[in-house]
User: Fold DNA 3'-5' helicase II from Acinetobacter marinus.
Amino acid sequence: MSNHTTLQQALSELEKNKEQFEAVQCKSHCVVLAGPGSGKTKTLTTAIARTLHDEVIAPRAIACITYNNECAIELETRLAKLGIETTGTSFIGTVHSFALTQIIMPYFRCVSIDIPQDFKVANSSECRVARENAYKTIYIATVSNSSPASLEHRSA
Assistant:
C-alpha cells in the first residue's frame, strides 16, 4: 500500500469523529484534550503525516516536541506504519534533544564555546554509572577523611 493510500485510510477512519478530524485538518495551532485511550496519539500522528505529506517541502521541516524519548519513539513508529519517513523533514524528540541537535550543536562554533566534537547527551544507563561513580567517590572520601578532589588525583 502506498504512503498516500495508507494516509487516506487513516484520515477516513478519523472522519467518524468530528473533533479528531478537525484537529487533523487544522493548519494552525491546535490543542487536543481527551482522556486515556481516546485516540490523541493517533490524531497527532495522522496530523503530522498529513502535514509532512501535503505541506512540508525541503528545505522546510516540522518539529514535534515530546515529554520523553518513549513518546518520540512511539510517534516515529506510528508514522512509519503510515508509510511516512521522518528523516530530513521532521524532528521528533524531547525539548532537550531539540535544543542540543537543532540549536546548540549547529551553532556553538559561532560563539566562543569549547564543546568537544564528540559531545553527546548521556543516556539513562550512562547517567546511572556516572551517578554510582560519584557516590562511590564521595563515600570513599568520607570514609578515608579525604576530599573527593584529592582522590581524583590519586586514581589518575
User: Anything to note?
Assistant: The chain is about 60% helix and 5% strand. The chain has two domains: 3-121, 123-156. The radius of gyration is 23 Å.
